Amino acid sequence: MSSRDNQFSAAPSAAGYLYQARLALFLSIPYVNSGAEVEVSVERLDDVSFEKEGTPIELLQTKHHIDRVASLTDASPDIWKTLRVWAEAAADDPSLPSRAKLMLVTTGEAPEGSAASLLRPRQSYGPGTKRNPKLAKEILTTIAETSDNKSLKLAFSAFLALSDAMRSSLLSAIEVVDRQPLLNDLGEELEHSLRLVAPTGKAALAREMLEGWWWPRICEVLMANPPDPIPISALEAKLDDIRELLKRDAIIADFEYAEPSDIEIAEYDGFRFVKQLHVIGLGGNRLRFAKRDYYRAFVQRSKWTREHVVLDEELERFEQRLVEEWEPRFAAMCDAHAEGEIDDTKLKQDAQEIYYWVETEARLPFRSITAKFLNVGSYHILANDLRVGWHKDFMVLCAEESQDG
């Protein structure tokens, strides 16, 4: 039995909660730089809600269906469970429909002619069709009065408990936004919405940076009871940071001049990149410099990755360039020693020349950075993985000489 078929699987519910959080971020983007002091919340006043000066201006119910099987028929649970929530809220606060937009956002589809199809936003109708809350009210009232669906009895009662005028007011405030993207497709929509923030071709990076900030914020606000709102101004500030970072195409090299401790230096003694230098006869200060560059590059790259400043793919492409610059030099050295009697001294000298090139000339850019520590340190990271080497037989000589695996 597949996990999808497992009736006890919590995946659909989990996807639904993640959808709420991601949708909240997506729907917050239009408020950015609007001048309105708006706050967004998840599971505070509704599934997702927007408030201004403490007053709700948008309340959203979300319905996420992994297989898009839901259909918003007139008797569908999605419709009536939503109507129950808002009917009971309107009964407690009759002014709610007049001051807040009520949106049902769903991945399901409203059949044409259904009540839900008559409540779509005005701009979603083509020529010859239009939004019609009055007819939707008549359809839904008939369903509530005649249906024998016991599971929706409380929803029918809540709707019918409203006066006819209040039902009209409630449905006039409701917008049904159907056929919306699934959870995983919402990422692409988010990238599209960020196209004005990110330079060409970097919308995916902007989204990753934004969501890297967003998800910890969501976790933090959900730990409060009730959940705290997130000011749109905080989102604006983060987008400004991302915009500046991507505009300059810059990253900060925090560890360019960092000095590892003697203990950290000593811990590298068993690493393959150190062994690689030993076998070509390097030691002394050049060995210490190598350990320092390894340390600086390793902690810098880890920080960039941890803070989502760079993508794994960017580092992979950078390493690939380093490898491809090393390959012809190493191949030429191997060709020079392919025939004849092995001269170990000459072999080490030639290997040292390749490493000397790394120390003094190899300065490939990572975005705008060509710093020595990043190039040399990254070469040592590659040497530690035996993806590059200095001695002709480094794979044999160093493969079993490691402490870190």
Question: What does this molecule look like?
Answer:
With 405 residues, this protein is an alpha/beta fold. Helices cover 53% and strands 8% of the residues. The chain has 16 helices and six strands. A six-stranded mixed sheet has the order 5-4-3-2-1-6. α2 packs across α5. The two termini are 39 Å apart. The C terminus is likely disordered.
Map the helices and strands.
Elements: H1 11-28, E1 38-42, E2 48-52, E3 55-63, H2 77-92, H3 96-99, E4 101-106, H4 133-146, H5 153-161, H6 164-173, E5 174-177, H7 186-193, H8 203-222, E6 230-231, H9 232-248, H10 262-267, H11 272-279, H12 284-306, H13 312-336, H14 344-360, H15 372-384, H16 394-398
Parallel strand pairs: 3-4, 4-5
Antiparallel strand pairs: 1-2, 1-6, 2-3
